[in-house]
Specification:
Elements (H helix, E strand, L loop, with lengths): L7 H9 L2 E4 L5 E4 L22 E8 L18 H17 L1 E8 L2 H13 L7 E5 H10 L22 H7 L15 H4 L2 E6 H6 L5 H6 L5 H8 L20 E5 L2 H9 L5 E2 L6 E2 L4 H14 L5 E3 L10 H10 L3 E7 L6 H4 L5 E4 L21 E4 L8 H32 L3 H12 L5 H5 L13 H7 L5 H23 L3
Parallel strand pairs: 3-4, 3-5, 7-10, 7-11
Antiparallel strand pairs: 1-2, 5-13, 6-11, 6-12, 8-9
Helix pairs in contact: 1-14, 2-14, 3-4
C-alpha cells in the first residue's frame, strides 16, 4: 500500500520543526511534534467503545529497526517514529480502554511453532501475531488463522486506505485473507526492494540520467546492464570483494536479487488474477526474463554477486554494502531498510534510489517486490475467541492512527526528507511504494520439504549452481509445486 504524504500542512509543520530527537539507532532526527495530536480521534470509523482496560498481546520478532516499537514502545525515547507509535497506542488506551502489549522471540522460525501450539492447545496466550509473511504462510495453509473477511463484528474496515489493498488483492484466494499490512506497521515498507545508485559515478562516467530513464519508461534490465558494463576497475588479476581493495563494480547483488529482478520484470511465479491461482514459471515470457537476468548476474567482470564470494552469513552481504558506501559500485539492489544501516548513514557519497528495472520498455509499469522474510503482516490465531472483538477494534485503531501519526514521521520526514536529499528520489519512492506487488510463489514457498527446494529458492538455487537450465529444473520440481499449491487452494475453499 502506498503510504502517501497526508497533507501539505503536515509537510510544512515538519519542515519547520526544530526539535532534535535521537533515533532507535542513535542518530539524530527531527520531530514534527505529534504529541499535540494525541487526543485527536477525528475520522475514526468505529463507534467509540470502552473495553475497560482489555490487554491485547501481540507476538512478534526482535532485532529489526522497528520490529517491536511498531507494536508497543514502552516509553517515549526521543525518536520520531517510535514516539509516534507510542502516541498512537496512548490514544487507543486512553480513548478505547485497550492496552497493546508486545512479546518477542529472537527467531522468526519459532513464532509459527508457538502459535500452532497455542491453537492446538486452545491457549489464548496471544491475540495477534506480527512477523515476516513467509513464516506465517504455513499457518494459513494449516487452518490456524482467521480469515479476516469472515470476521463479521464490523470493526475492520479493510477497504480503507490505511490497509494495504494490494496485498489483499494479490494473495487472497477464494476471498480468504489471512494476512494484513498497512499503516499500522512500517516493517512492511522497510522490506520493499529497490535499486540504489551512485550519482557521482553516473557523472564521472558521463552516463545517462537514471531518473530520466525511469520517467521515460526506459529503465530496463538491459539498460541497467549496459550502464553497469561501462563502470569497471580492477586492481589485481581478478576482481576482489574486499572493500579495502577498491575494485569498482557496475552492479553489486545477492542471491535474493535474482527473484527480485524477476518480479521487477512483472514475472510472478504464480498468476493469481483468475478464479484460482496457477503456476506460470514455464511461460515463455518468464523463461526469457530469466535468461536476461542470468546473463546479468553471471557477468563476473561487471556484476559482483556476494554469494559467489562466501556464504550469506559469512559477512559478504556487509562487504557488498560497504563497497557501495565506499563509492565503488554503480548499482546495488536492496531493501528500503538498507538506507538506515549505519554504513549507509555514514557514507560520504551521493546516491539515489530507483525502482527495479522493467524486463523491457514494453512492460506497462514498474513493479516492486518485498523480501518475504521481513515483510511484516498481522494475523489472528484461531485460539483468540474471547478477545476477538477487542483485537479487531485494536487493529483498526492501530492502522487508522498509524496513518495519521506514524506515516508522516516515517515516510514523509525520516525516509523522504532525511535519508534522501533530492526531489527525484522522493518521486521514485512514491513510484516504488505505489507499484508494490506480492507473489504467492515466494510467500508460500510451494514444495519446500525443509531442504531449500521450494519455489522461493528456485531461482537462487539455479544461480548458486551457475546454471541456466530452468526448463529441466522446473520439470523436475513442478509436480511438488503443484501439489502444494493445490493444498493451499483446498484450504481456501473450505467453509
Amino acid at each position: 500500500m502506498t503510504k502517501r504524504i497526508l497533507s501539505l500542512l503536515l509537510v510544512v509543520i515538519m519542515a519547520f520543526s526544530s526539535v532534535l530527537l535521537v533515533s532507535c539507532n542513535g542518530e539524530e532526527e527531527e520531530s514534527s511534534g505529534t504529541a499535540s495530536e494525541v487526543g485527536d480521534t477525528a475520522g475514526f470509523l468505529n463507534e467509540k467503545k470502552d473495553f475497560g482496560g482489555e490487554t491485547i498481546k501481540i507476538l512478534t520478532y526482535a532485532n529489526r529497526n522497528f520490529s517491536t516499537c511498531q507494536i508497543a514502545p514502552e516509553e517515549l525515547v526521543d525518536e520520531a517514529v517510535s514516539d509516534a507509535f507510542y502516541e498512537r497506542n496512548a490514544i487507543i488506551e486512553e480513548n478505547y480502554g485497550i492496552k497493546i502489549e508486545v512479546e518477542t522471540e529472537d527467531d522468526q522460525n519459532t513464532i509459527a511453532d508457538t502459535i500452532r501450539l497455542n491453537c492446538q492447545s486452545n491457549l489464548d496466550e496471544y491475540q495477534a501475531v506480527v512477523t515476516g509473511i513467509v513464516y506465517m504462510a504455513p499457518l494459513g495453509v494449516e487452518g490456524f488463522l482467521y480469515d479476516f473477511n469472515s470476521i463479521d463484528n464490523g470493526y475492520l474496515h479493510l477497504d480503507k486506505e490505511w490497509w494495504d489493498q494490494t496485498i489483499m488483492q494479490d494473495i487472497s484466494i477464494n476471498d480468504k485473507i489471512w494476512f494484513l499490512s498497512g499503516d499500522a506497521l512500517v516493517e512492511d515498507d522497510e522490506s520493499t526492494w529497490a535499486i540504489y545508485f551512485n550519482k557521482e559515478l553516473i557523472k564521472s562516467y558521463d552516463l545517462e540520467d537514471p531518473y530520466q530513464l525511469v520517467r521515460d519508461g526506459a529503465w530496463t534490465l538491459d539498460k541497467m546492464h549496459e550502464l553497469a558494463s561501462k563502470v569497471h576497475k580492477q586492481n589485481g588479476s581478478t576482481k576482489s570483494y574486499d572493500p579495502d581493495v577498491g575494485d569498482v563494480w557496475g552492479l553489486l547483488a545477492q542471491s535474493y536479487d535474482y527473484y527480485a529482478f524477476m518480479l521487477g520484470g512483472d514475472q510472478p511465479m504464480v498468476d493469481n488474477t483468475g478464479d484460482e491461482p496457477r503456476l506460470r514459471v514455464d511461460e515463455e515470457e518468464n523463461y526469457n526474463t530469466f535468461y536476461t537476468v542470468y546473463d546479468i548476474m553471471l557477468d563476473d567482470k561487471n556484476t559482483g554477486v556476494a554469494d559467489f564470494f562466501g556464504s550469506w552469513n559469512s559477512g559478504v552481504y556487509g562487504q557488498k554494502t560497504q563497497i557501495f558506501a565506499n563509492g565503488n559500485a554503480l548499482f546495488m539492489p536492496g531493501a528500503i531498510s538498507t538506507v538506515s544501516e549505519e554504513v549507509m548513514r555514514n557514507a560520504e557519497i551521493k546516491y539515489g534510489i530507483l525502482p527495479m528495472p522493467k524486463r523491457s520498455d514494453l512492460q506497462d509499469d514498474y513493479t516492486t517486490s518485498v523480501t518475504v522474510y521481513w515483510c511484516s503482516v498481522f494475523s489472528i490465531p484461531l485460539s483468540n475467541v474471547e478477545k476477538l472483538d477487542a483485537t479487531c477494534y485494536a487493529l483498526e485503531a492501530m492502522a487508522f492512527y498509524g496513518k495519521k501519526l506514524v506515516t508522516p514521521e516515517y515516510y514523509d520526514r525520516t525516509l523522504t526528507y532525511k535519508r534522501f536529499q533530492d526531489d527525484e528520489s522522493r518521486d521514485m519512492l512514491d513510484l516504488i511504494f505505489r507499484n508494490r506487488t506480492y507473489d504467492l510463489g515466494g510467500i508460500f514457498n510451494f514444495g519446500d520439504t525443509g531442504g531449500g527446494n521450494g519455489t522461493l529458492y528456485f531461482y537462487t538455487n539455479l544461480l548458486g549452481a551457475k546454471s541456466n537450465a530452468i526448463v529441466s529444473e522446473y520439470e523436475k520440481y513442478s509436480g511438488a509445486y503443484q501439489t502444494a499449491l493445490d493444498a493451499l487452494i483446498e484450504q481456501a475453499n473450505k467453509e
